[in-house]
Specification:
Blueprint lengths: L13 H7 L7 H36 L2
Length: 65
């Protein structure tokens, strides 16, 4: 996927800034720490998606009665 394929939704979008950062100067240790932080953020986002999906299902069931 090309970085410019999906432009940021708003100016200063943190994700767009993150993926444009130059990582060439980072050490292996720094890259591993970055990967760990990104994995943690992915897990947090997946939890939010699961919560929102469940919340939506409950709301749909409630209002369809």
């Amino acid at each position: 996927m090309d970085i410019d394929e999906n432009p940021p939704l708003r100016r200063g979008d943190p994700l767009a800034i993150l993926i444009k950062q130059d990582i060439d100067a980072l050490s292996v240790t720094e890259l591993e720490a970055r990967i760990a932080a990104l994995r943690s953020e992915i897990t947090r986002c997946e939890g939010k998606v699961a919560f929102a999906s469940k919340h939506r299902s409950v709301a749909d069931a409630l209002f369809k009665k």
